[in-house]
Amino acid sequence: MDEKDLKMDLKNYGRIKWPFNxxxxxxxxxxxxxxxxxxxxxxxxxKKLILKTDHKFHTFIVHPKNYSDGEKSCYFYLHGGGFCxxxxxxxxxxxxxxxxxxDSIGVIVDYSVVKRYxxxxxxxxxxxxxxxxxxxxxxxxxDKICVAGDSAGGFLSLxxxxxxxxxxxxxxxxxxxxxxxxxxxSMKKFTNARVWNSKLNKKMWKIxxxxxxxxxxxxxxxxxxxxxxxxxxxxxxxRDEGIALKDELIKKNCDVEYHFIxxxxxxxxxVSSSPIVEEAIENRVNFLNKILREN
Length: 295
Hints:
Order of helices and strands: HHEEEHEHEHEHHEHEH
Strand order of the largest sheet: 1-2-4-3-5-6-7-8
Radius of gyration: 18 Å
CATH architecture: 3-Layer(aba) Sandwich
Number of strands: 8
Oligomer: single chain
Distance between the termini: 44 Å
Number of helices: 9
Mean pLDDT: 93
Helix content: 25-40%
Low-confidence stretches: none
Strand content: 15-25%
CATH topology: Rossmann fold
């Protein structure tokens, strides 16, 4: 990656690449602030649910800042973190910003981390099914549920869309993890990129798959696949996976809105002061509002 090609307002960020192994991830799980604590610090009204598959996990139903009565659309969010790290403050800030600007009820799945596949996938499905079955209880419009995920959360969101496509109004994937094969040009090129790179990506799959294989059924009726927003970053090892997914969905005649973020690296949207981040959030909000306001 040529540093001179980075967007100027991103150059001072993202230099640190966190050590990524099972021990570090396990320690982070213990010492990182819980989502419960982060939401309290934000003074956001929320309800914590305890759900269970093989393990108990939490799901949070979050109200926008100026919450008013009445049924609302739902922004169902699955965070990134390599299947090993919890929701971070930057991700939460973006989540709340989108909630406030779409007047949606939010759902964050605090899925189990540092667990083997398909634990996180199963928990995402469990939480989604629970929300769909309890829309009236939580004042959610059943036909206005959008699913979103960044990085590893994008992988969970995509898998959820394959399994529950007929229930999802819109799908948003921000620099998503897509394929464990890791045979793209961007994987070969970005071995030492900022924040995330192909070396860390390989470690992530080794931890999550634990030498197993994925079992994702793509043999679905693509006529029911939700309108999809895909965002990729120029200097991201995951870039070409996202592009390939975009091309695949277009070939299936799916409706896709695609954004190539020039001069950005993986997880760039944590730099809240950056104009490029403001533009990306604006694009996400516009997509959601377009989907959620359709009859």
